[in-house]
Automatic annotation (TrEMBL):
Binds 1 heme b (iron(II)-protoporphyrin IX) group per subunit. Its cofactor is heme b; Ca(2+). It is an enzyme of class 1 (oxidoreductase). This is Peroxidase. The lineage of its organism: Eukaryota, Viridiplantae, Streptophyta, Embryophyta, Tracheophyta. Gene3D superfamilies: 1.10.520.10, Peroxidase, domain 2 (1.10.420.10). SUPFAM superfamilies: Heme-dependent peroxidases (SSF48113). One of its GO terms (biological process) is hydrogen peroxide catabolic process. Its EC number is 1.11.1.7. Ca(2+) 2 binds at T194, D247, T250, D255. It is found in: Secreted. Disulfide bonds join C39-C115, C72-C77, C121-C323, C200-C234. Keywords: Calcium, Disulfide bond, Heme, Hydrogen peroxide, Iron, Metal-binding, Oxidoreductase, Peroxidase, Secreted, Signal.
Length: 328
């Protein structure tokens, strides 16, 4: 048994190493000065668009951060999630609550005026999410650009490639490894839940409806007082559109409060709580909860890796004239 276990661990480590090498090679194909000559004000125009939208709607940073996750985990960071039509990624139920599309489209329209056919929608998504984090109080991160837009968007590719809120630790580790992301990346990128909100149905599995129509807690990994708050915000009669802040303490601020919430068992999703069930991830959670700067530094490195997953470069893909459709 021990021999088989050792062999499995060796195979897993080798697989993760290969995936990480792949991500590194993709990152190398991108460039930190990609638009220096072709559209020198591209990043500024994107940032101003995100800043303006966030001023009008404080929920925008959380939406843009979720958007980049859902885009990059399916077909890679290629704006395939932006494509509209029957059976595209947007049509899958897991993506129907994803927001921020209008911000990306606004930035694209502006860039097409000043730099037509130059800046990809994929780069806009990555840069907008980067800017959203800083606007919400997080660190400034330099990310390379040069991504090209994909031409394939299928609803059937969504579910096998995104994290479900009920995932176990093993399921999340396997999916992250498939994307070339490590256990450390998993813990760091989960910190995105320090901003944003979620619909009641995404964590309803933690409760059970009694015969009299009331909810009762069945998940013992969540703080009971926090559970009571959630049941008040999300009663059985709640409309499908009702949402709850991911972070009950500093919902609009990108900080390390998520990790403090984890230690207090005050997080929304079972997939968050499982980070406390593993000795290695629990130690990471404790470190980030005690040192925000440590989280910020590590966030930068993990975010660069995330936004490089499956990125299309050179002759792979295209530069769309509109983010919602491929070029004719």
């Amino acid at each position: 048994m021990e021999t088989k276990k050792s062999m499995f661990l060796c195979i897993l480590v080798s697989f993760i190493f290969i995936c990480c090498c792949y991500v590194s090679s993709v990152t190398a194909a991108l460039s930190f000065d990609f638009y220096a000559a072709s559209c020198p004000n591209a990043e500024l125009m994107i940032r101003n668009t995100v800043s303006s939208a966030s001023s009008n709607d404080p929920s925008v940073p959380g939406k843009l951060l979720r958007l980049v996750f859902h885009d990059c985990f399916v077909e890679g960071c290629d704006a395939s999630l932006m494509l509209q039509g029957n059976n595209t990624e947007q049509s899958d139920p897991a993506n129907r609550s994803v927001g921020g599309f209008s911000v990306i489209e606004s930035a694209k329209r502006l860039l097409e005026i000043f730099c037509p056919g130059t800046v990809s929608c994929a780069d806009i998504i990555a840069l907008a999410a980067r800017d959203a984090v800083e606007i919400a109080g997080g660190p400034r991160v330099q990310i390379p650009t040069g991504r090209r837009d994909g031409m394939v968007s299928l609803a059937s590719n969504v579910r096998p490639n995104i994290i479900d809120t009920s995932f176990t630790m093993d399921e999340m580790v396997k999916l992250f490894a498939n994307k070339g992301l490590s256990l450390l990346d998993l813990v760091i990128l989960s910190g995105a839940h320090t901003i944003g909100s979620a619909h009641c149905n995404t964590f309803r599995s933690r409760f059970q409806q009694d015969s009299n129509g009331t909810l009762r807690l069945i998940d013992q990994t969540i703080d009971t007082n926090y559970a009571d708050e959630l049941m008040k915000q999300c009663p059985v009669t709640a409309q499908p559109s009702v949402t709850v802040n991911n972070d009950p303490e500093t919902s609009m601020l990108f900080d390390n409060q998520y990790y403090r919430n984890l230690l207090a068992h005050r997080v929304l999703f079972p997939s968050d709580s499982v980070l406390m069930s593993n000795v290695n991830t629990k130690k990471m959670v404790e470190d980030f909860a005690n040192d925000q700067q440590l989280f910020f530094v590590n966030w930068g490195a993990a975010f660069v890796k995330l936004t490089s997953v499956g990125a299309k470069t050179d002759e792979d893909g295209e530069i769309r004239s509109s983010c919602t459709a491929t070029n004719v």
